[in-house]
Inverse folding.
């Protein structure tokens, strides 16, 4: 399997999932620099300069050319044009992916994460032909674990002190969702 064909942007009722643009910086600074948002995500708290540097990398993460790559999409609120989050899909290996997401604090609790991740799962299974999608959550990130459960994921593993995360050992929760489970 080489180069996965994606149709972007992905549109939902309220959201546009698209490749990042340079003018996303102001919106990204809001949640990349929020300690509550980045508490459970792998990246550090970022100031404007660090967010700008990261955005330059994201500009080239709008396609999947080989296993190991991450597709990183801006989640834009269609009504306002504001980027309220990011959703990520890694081409992990043959017909397998990994899901990730982060949303601005004021965008949480409105169903945007569920809407965006469901759209990415639809893309993963319908367009990319994935058989399985996984997600890894740091224990304590209850909101993300609940969201994954609502999307049909089941917890497959719990790795006590499975990762050195932000300067200390953290327990990882591993979730999985097979294509046929998602379709059911």
């Amino acid at each position: 399997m080489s180069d996965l064909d994606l149709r972007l942007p992905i549109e939902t009722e309220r959201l546009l999932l698209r490749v990042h643009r340079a003018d996303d910086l102001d919106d990204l600074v809001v949640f990349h620099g929020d300690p509550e948002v980045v508490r459970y995500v792998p990246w550090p708290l970022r100031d404007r300069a660090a967010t700008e540097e990261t955005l330059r990398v994201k500009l080239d993460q709008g396609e999947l050319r080989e296993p190991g790559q991450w597709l990183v999409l801006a989640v834009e609120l269609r009504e306002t044009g504001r980027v309220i989050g990011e959703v990520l899909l890694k081409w992990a290996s043959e017909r397998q992916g990994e899901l990730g997401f982060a949303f601005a604090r004021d965008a949480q609790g409105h169903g945007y994460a569920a809407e965006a991740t469901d759209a990415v799962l639809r893309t993963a299974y319908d367009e990319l032909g994935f058989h399985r999608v996984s997600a890894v959550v740091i224990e304590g990130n209850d909101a993300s674990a609940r969201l994954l459960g609502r999307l049909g994921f089941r917890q497959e593993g719990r790795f006590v002190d499975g990762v050195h995360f932000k300067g200390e050992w953290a327990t990882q929760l591993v979730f999985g969702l097979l294509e046929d489970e998602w379709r059911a």
About this structure: The domain at 10-131 is CATH 3.40.630.30 (Aminopeptidase).
